[in-house]
Amino acid sequence: MSKIYAVGDIQGCAPSLKALVKKLPKQSKMIFLGDLVNRGPNSLGALRQLKALQESGRAECILGNHDLHLLAIDAGIRKTKSLDTVEAILKAPDRRELINWVRKRPMALSNGKLLAVHAGVLPQWDLQQAIECAQEVEKALRSKSYKEFLGNMYGNTPNKWSNSLKGYERLRVITNALTRMRFCTPGGQMEFESKEGLENGPKGYIPWFKVPMRKTRDTLIYFGHWSTLGLLRQHNVVGLDTGCVWGGKLTAMQISDNNKDMKKSEIIQVDGYDHPLRM
């Protein structure tokens, strides 16, 4: 059986991606945890390589907030920001092919035992609901009216889950949880400004995976998005964004089905991008 590795945020660091794939066992498979593009030196090259890996059956790629940002720019809904590095994608001859490929990527993955997401999972969701909510956003992204969804995707409200939420408000909460959340209250109210470490959230807020009665606490979860945590291995949570784009590492970790095996899992790292604005 092939080894499967979860891989942290690439953010357009194509040289690091290429180096990492070379270091992984030849028959291994990969799950990339989102933020495939943006901020790094070669978003176009990274995206083409990831697409080739996925189409060859070696990888799957979850969507992160930077990937959704690319879709929104392509759709004319957002403008590029000063640190964005997606211009080459927008000028590429295979732009439409690449954008359509990104639109069809999952928001979360699960084999029924573990869960892979970009950012986090709301405390009210169990594993099944997390996957079903992710599928709601996937359906919106893959529809002919996907640009309408992208136009309604942005905003910090509502900032708390309710099963009664409908329409774009419901999809916005799901998207924010899966691709932007770091801290929330024990009741699941999300906060989106803080990016520091575990103990530095606003008063009353805690890391989403520290919520005491979180319904996925017995599910092993792999996530990215939070580079200031570095490589994080705690009970049933693995954080793999090790700041590749900011001069850190690009990290792959062999996936396990349970917490006990996870603690012994193989970790493979390569050097990240020496960003001119590295922190």
Describe this structure in words.
The model has no long low-confidence stretch (mean pLDDT 96). Strand 10 and strand 11 form a beta hairpin. The chain starts with a strand and ends in an 8-residue tail after the last strand. It has helices spanning 14-23, 43-55, 65-74, 87-91, 95-103, 127-142, 146-153, 167-179, 259-262, and strands spanning 4-7, 29-32, 59-61, 108-110, 114-117, 183-184, 190-191, 206-207, 220-223, 232-234, 237-239, 249-254, 267-271. The strands form 3 sheets. It has a 5-stranded mixed sheet with strand order 3-2-1-12-13. It has a 5-stranded mixed sheet with strand order 4-5-9-11-10, with helices on one face. The protein is an alpha/beta fold and 279 residues long.
Key phrases:
alpha/beta, five-stranded mixed beta sheet, single chain, 279 residues, 9 helices, 13 strands, globular
